[in-house]
Amino acid sequence: xxxxxxxxxxxxxxxxxxxxxxxxxxxxxxxxxxxxxxxxxxxxxxxxxxxxxxxxxxxxxxxxxxxxxxxxxxxxxxxxxxxxxxxxxxxxxxxxxxxxxxxxxxxx
Amino acid sequence: xxxxxxxxxxxxxxxxxxxxxxxxxxxxxxxxxxxxxxxxxxxxxxxxxxxxxxxxxxxxxxxxxxxxxxxxxxxxxxxxxxxxxxxxxxxxxxxxxxxxxxxxxxxxxxxxxxxxxxxxxxxxxxxxxxxxxxxxxxxxxxxxxxxxxxxxxxxxxxxxxxxxxxxxxxxxxxxxxxxxxxxxxxxxxxxxxxxxxxxxxxxxxxxx
Lengths: 108, 208
Description:
Chain A is mostly helical. Chain A contains five helices and no strands.
């Protein structure tokens, strides 16, 4: 219940979000394997999203079951990514070249 | 008679599960969960297309991140002004609530203005929905659809929050922790969600 709790320090949350954004931008310049950068960026984005949902959207002060509603899309989204994995194993193709071979009328 | 009294006192006939304050709040959460699936689907499809492409242009080189990093900052700021505005409603301070809601709206309009500028610049450089000079044509398609879908959400949010500003500004609207607080909090849920989605879009479209 939103009125029942003491207000969190919103400026502190804002500061965390700001720092995490700066860290995200710094991470892309670190000379390590692309996979590590991807893992770091996705983790940072999830932390930021959690901060927004938990404090700005008061989810931390609501009933647990409401959080389940909020987490459902995350679960389904993860499922969707798994379902699309077979597509990833398809041979990477160049769309531009294939367009040159068969120039379709209309769009360039 | 008791029915009439119930209607006029503003309480609801049956208490909402999960959100005892109002059904509207539960409704907004369920809507947002569905909307999140919309964005989740777009981003998952984007991932699959990008992974299956051999000539996906580098987003960092083509889109640039300086401007978008500032746009991210702007949305984060507008989220904090939103919660401050809500706090103003809760404490019965109309002026504070008005100023912070107005700042939130300005943040949203500023974001949209910068997005228009960014789109115009990229279109001038050759990024089109059906192709671009640098590689996979889906690069442009996914970019415009995903950032455009988010931009429409921001536009909707600006209209929504403007209505809230008018509501809070009316001298007849009672502030405090009652109905007004609940209604403004629900609009805030939507606004923070738009911010949350941008965090994801910024990461997947611009940074990765």
